[in-house]
Amino acid sequence: MSATIDTDAALDRFLQLTAIPGPSGKEKAVAAEIVRQLEAAGADSSAIQFDDAHRRTRMSGEVGNLIVHLPGTVEGPTTLLTAHMDTVPVCVGSQPTVDGEYVYSAADGTGLGADNRAGCAALLTAACELLSGNQPYPPLVLCWFVQEEIGLEGSRNMNAQLIGPHHRAINFDGGTVEKLTIGAIGGERMTIDVQGIASHAGVAPEQGASAIVMASEAIASLHRDGWLGYVRRPQGGEGRSNIGVFQGGDATNVVTPHVHLRAEARSHDPEVRTAIVSAIRDAFESAAAEVQNADGQGGRITFSSHVDYEAFCLDEQGPSVSAAQAAVSAVGREPLLNISNGGLDANWMFRHGIQAVTLGCGQRNVHTADERLCIPDYLDACRIATAVASGQTP
After folding, report:
1. Which helix (H) or strand (E) holds 347?
2. Is 149 marked as a binding-site residue?
3. Angle at 359 between CA 268 and CA 7, to 5 degrees
4. What is the CATH number of the domain that holds 220?
5. Which of 246, 316, 323, 333 could join 393 via S-S bond, C-beta 3.0 to 4.6 A?
């Protein structure tokens, strides 16, 4: 049997939160509204705190992760529910509007922001339902992350000690309700600067060593050797890579002395991901040395890499997976286990010792001006959050 919720109030919470601008690093107003509603529902102000994650993130932020401890009304295992507060920039200025079974933004060229205000509202609904006193519940911890959309910065830099011990964890993010993401790929980003030798392209082209040629040779060799796109190695293991940014040159009569590139590598196997990064670095170093001017002078590169998140995979029989499966089944849906090829807050939660399953809330076409929220899916996500938080699932 699924949890009973006030569906009108649940939808109102989503509409209220979604109308508040809150891109990455500017989540303070969203957090303040969540706190206001929690206190209005009866949460003690002493149970509400913020960590200092925003002081360690790559981009400074207004506020850290919002963490709330509700002591519960009965003894039982503690549940952790999480979601992220920030939206991508296209959603700033959203005007959430209900149209039948969907919500969209009435502002031209503006995304809705259901990713992830729907998750925020699902957590808030669960908390408000339990605080109303209509049903007993064991201890509950809720965490609203900041800066997810710019590289999982809030979960990466969270103060996990403020979460405390818990038995199971559910993370609410984008996608369909019945898809249980129990694992995700690991990702690493690279920055490559190629330094060639400038010369006049008409008067003395032979005195130059083109950084564009160096980078092009490197990319061609990586493509030829199977290190770009879908990577499958003969000795086993697979991954993905992409060079997504290539910038350089500002005149046709100059042999280009510098180009800047940004790339990424992903794999469920950390060794394969590391091998991809090494192959990319080696290719650029070799090409920079081999492309020379008439005097035998070549180029050089500056290379740096940054791990965005490590891969993880949960035990299918673990408490978080079991609770999520039972709650999804209770709302009449068939749970589908999934391994993601994109990063999640759950990646960094796992590194902090938190084993979280990720569920969607009915978001469609996220990160676009066409974004929609399926209201029946969202309400089921609220029911799932409430059921897990109340201890109705094993």
Report:
1. helix 345-351
2. yes
3. 170
4. 3.30.70.360
5. 323
Token pair recorded at residue 312: 């993880």
User: Mind listing the pLDDT tens digit for each residue in 24-70?
Assistant: 999 999 999 999 999 999 999 999 999 999 999 999 999 999 999 99
Q: How confident is the model at residue 1 (pLDDT cuts 50, 70, 90)?
A: low
Q: Average pLDDT of the chain?
A: 97
According to the model, what pLDDT value does residue 231 have? 98
- Alpha-carbon distance of 118 to 120, in angstroms, equals 5
* 377 known ligand binder: no
Total domains in the chain come to 2
- The mean pLDDT of 156-185, rounded to a whole number, is 97
Active site residues: 148
Final residue of a structural domain among 257, 283, 309: 309
Question: Quick check: helix, strand or coil at residue 270?
Answer: helix
Q: What is the rounded distance in angstroms from the CA atom of residue 212 to the CA atom of residue 98?
A: 50
Q: Where among 265, 283, 309 does a domain terminate?
A: 309
Give the mean pLDDT of 312-323.
97
Q: What is the mean pLDDT of residues 194-201?
A: 98
Q: Is 225 helix (H, G, I), strand (E, B) or coil?
A: coil
Give the range of the structural domain holding residue 268, as residue numbers without chain letter: 189-309
DSSP state string for 375-394: HHHHHHHHHHHHHHHTT---
For residue 394, is it within any domain?
no
Does the pTM surpass 0.85? The reply is: yes
Tokens of 63: 């506020």
